[in-house]
Specification:
single chain, alpha+beta, Chloramphenicol Acetyltransferase, globular
């Protein structure tokens, strides 16, 4: 009998170059009339416009060769035509962003805007790319960036950028960049599902009907900030944490975490009063502590922060969002701790702090966030002492991305090293997966072995 797989498995990916040839770059305009004309604008809420949303979310989707049903139409044509169709009900994605005098963003419409489609080809085969289940920074050529594009640029950019790359084996990838200002993760899945269903069926499939409604998150008059919002606090980084991650480019490491190990962590993280601990609470606490220990952050009294997004839709009772709302309806929850307290605290203690922060996101907290941004609009990303955990395991990304060629082999981000203080929890791509997740995190090379040991609970001090 074969031995059981390890509960924590370090995943490997090859270091390679993927040469591509770009064959065509063209705009994709809505396939029919839209309720906006040149000169029109759309309001973005402060949740859409917070500094952390002023980014593009890059993802890639791989598909095996299975084009027998589409001999008369190329993959690119099917994907482009479906995008043009969904840009009618999702017409804001065909606009552009601009900044008003007060620094706030809005969507505006002008002639000839639309999304952007890139058609590319590679002489490589999918099998040459290694294990497609493991996010690989080498895949960056499969997601289009403009020459000399500035980091974090969103002003006057196409809001959907799609690159279809055909491989010599007949397989292909779809590389996407979608502007976070227009949608959060759940909203992006809604848009993606409509696009994929439209491509698969050959007719417009939009369920639910998209809803803009950003005005429901308009700031109060006068603004009422009722929480300290330490997630936005400006901190001068006097610790070794940021220095060790930004002075030398870190390494992206990925680990498969079995369902059994997740359950084991939850049991270790259970508090004495048996308060409910989610898998996310336990995993976030364990990864944060392991990361800080491996980095050996100094000084010990330095204040660290863990941030993560919380979907506020279920919290909204007074003004609930409509079914089909795809805008940003998330709050940034934040936990703070000194280095000393974090590394010496029990796992259950850290888990309790995360649970408290997660449950602390309420309708009033969301309204306070909107008002805080209105009063003191942050104009730069704050990295001081921070780790941000992004939870993709709650998204049906594989189920949403069947464009007619079946479930993608991989769906998700590829390279987090440009933002090395971000950790991503991904669903395992195998359709037969039993609940495993993939954790992607950045570390300097000197800390990778220590992190693996802490993550695997090889250090006895982590077992309580």
């Amino acid at each position: 009998m074969a031995p059981p797989p390890p509960r924590v498995q370090e995943l490997q990916f090859p270091h390679l170059d993927i040469p591509i040839t770009i064959q065509q770059i063209s705009p994709v305009l809505p396939a029919g009339p839209i309720p906006a004309t040149p000169g029109d604008t759309l309001y973005l809420s402060n949740l859409d416009d917070m500094i952390g949303a002023r980014v593009f979310t890059p993802t890639v989707y791989f598909y095996r060769s299975n084009c027998s049903n589409y001999e008369q139409k190329t993959v690119t044509t099917i994907v482009r035509d479906a995008l043009a169709s969904v840009l009618v009900p999702y017409y804001p994605f065909s606009g552009r962003l601009r900044e008003r005098k007060n620094g706030k963003l809005e969507v505006f419409f002008g002639p000839g805007q639309g999304a952007l489609m890139i058609e590319a080809q590679s002489g490589m085969r999918l099998v040459d790319l290694g294990d497609l289940a493991v996010p690989n920074p080498a895949w960056t050529t499969l997601i289009y960036r403009f020459p000399d594009e500035e980091p974090y640029k969103v002003i006057d950019m196409p809001l959907v950028i799609a690159q279809v790359t055909r491989f010599s084996c007949g397989g292909f990838s779809l590389g996407l960049r979608i502007c976070h200002c227009l949608c959060d993760g759940l909203g992006a899945m809604q848009f993606l599902a409509a696009w994929a269903a439209t491509a698969k069926t050959g007719k417009l499939m939009v369920v639910p009907e998209p809803c803009w409604d950003r005005e429901i998150f308009h700031p109060r008059v006068p603004p009422m900030v009722k929480y300290p919002h330490i997630e936005f606090r400006k901190i001068d980084d006097g610790s070794s944490l940021t220095k060790c991650l930004w002075e030398v480019k870190p390494i992206q490491k990925c680990y498969r975490i079995s369902r059994e190990f997740q359950a084991h962590l939850k049991s270790l993280a259970r508090s004495p009063d048996n308060s409910t601990c989610t898998t996310f609470d336990a995993m976030a606490a364990h990864v944060w502590r392991s990361w800080v220990k491996a980095l050996d952050v100094k000084p010990s009294d330095y204040e660290l922060r863990l941030t993560f997004s919380v979907n506020a839709r279920p919290k909204l009772k007074k003004l609930p969002v409509k079914d089909g709302f795809y805008g940003n309806a998330i709050c940034v929850a934040c936990v703070s701790s000194t280095v000393s307290d974090l590394v010496n605290e029990s796992l259950s203690g850290t888990c309790g702090l995360i649970r408290e922060a997660r449950l602390g996101v309420s309708e009033e907290y969301l309204r306070s966030t909107v008002d805080f941004i209105e009063v003191d609009r942050p104009n730069r990303l704050e990295f001081g002492g921070k780790l941000t955990v992004t939870q993709w395991t709650r998204f049906l990304i594989y189920e949403s991305a069947d464009f007619g060629w079946g479930r993608p082999v991989y769906a998700g981000p590829i390279d987090i090293t440009p933002t090395p203080q971000v950790c991503v929890f991904l669903p395992e791509g195998d359709a037969e997966s039993n609940g495993a997740m993939v954790v992607c995190i950045c570390l300097p090379d000197s800390a990778t072995q220590k992190f693996k040991e802490f993550l695997c609970l090889m250090d006895s001090s982590d077992k309580s």
